[in-house]
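Next comes a concrete protein, fold included:
___
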Amino acid sequence: MDHNRASRRSFLALAGVTPLVATVLASCGDSGPAGSGSGGGATDWILSGQPGEGIRQSTVEAWNKAHSDQKITTSSFQNDAYKAKIKTAIGAGQAPTIIFGWGGGTLRDYAKQGVVDDLTSFFQSNPDVKSRLFDTAYAAATVEDKIYAIPCETVQPIILYYNKKVFDQVGVQPPTSWNDMLELVSKFNAAGIAPISLGGQSRWTNMMWLELMFDRVGGPQVFEAIYNGTKDSWSNPAAIEALTKIQDLVKANGFVKGFASITADSNADQALLYTGKAAMMLHGSWTYGSMKTDGGDFVSGGHLGYMNFPPVEGGTGDPSNNFGNPAQYLSISSKASKEAKDIALAFFKSGINTDAEAKQWIASGGVPIVKGSDAQFASAAPDDADFLKFVYDAATEAKNFQQSWDQALSPTEAETLLDNIEKLFGLAITPQQFATNMNAAIGS
């Protein structure tokens, strides 16, 4: 389920505009351990789950067909299995040549440990490669002004989805402000419909609400201070206000009953929306494809609505600001052989982010990070074209597009964050306790 948790995550304050299951290895190429390419050729571990796996595999196959002397061998893993295996492999000096990731805090750790190559000179020598991609994609690939990964695949902002049929049934309109949202909660509850679907067991789904609330209340600088390690920055008054508003929403029964036991990995949260059991859902753009596939006529019948998260009264964050994945990212293992590294660099130059690959992502319901890809949207089905254009505009017109917190922060700090988010939504801690716990984790 690559287009769920995996593909959804990623964004640090991108100056201006700027993510599960089992542990089974499914080999798409060679079933060997796929090290750093010392045995000839290069190696690449890709995420499984369609449609992403198929697109990634066909991209490598097209490269291999055209470059018989520069072969790349792939092995595929489900998301959580990959995260565990890549960490172990890097520690043992046995990483694949090409390291897939989401940028942000993990990449920053890789760069500081010297386990991935600095690609700055590659981009300087190939300015057309850099300029072809969304400018917003590079912040999460950059550490201390050096680029350690090439952005790839799709941009995935967070979207407030709603069920038009349910809204019509209750006789209400989509929210234009936070107060509107709270009024809708009351009206949907009165009608016996869950106001908001949430796969709270997954924790990062709850985080999306917090990210956008922090932004709408205090603007992007609130999290920027946290990211930069500023002492006690979780105690910013805007942060406390945002934390309080989220708990107010929980206390008002804004989320579906039992949300803490619902997992996003099963798509159960999406099902609640398209079956009309819930009116709204805040989620990544990657959920569109599965709702179209699994939701009957929910998409094709015009019942799916979508919008940016509404502004908060008195807040300073621009309503165009967003969070999510600015892209996905590929790095090169510093332990790889020179031959393998040269193959990877050649692949980065002309094998990925191609027009052919972009067409496949568009057909899957994704928005490629290639500039001008919106020109191809017209060839899609009308519902798809409208959604793709919305996502493209949400990504390119956002005044600030931040990487998802659990990707921007270090893995240690991110885990502490997710633990405390679970407690916050469960009303087990107060906003002040949340801030105290997170202040203690800054820089960890």
About this structure: DSSP finds 19 helices and 15 strands in the chain. Residues 52-66 form the longest helix (15 residues).
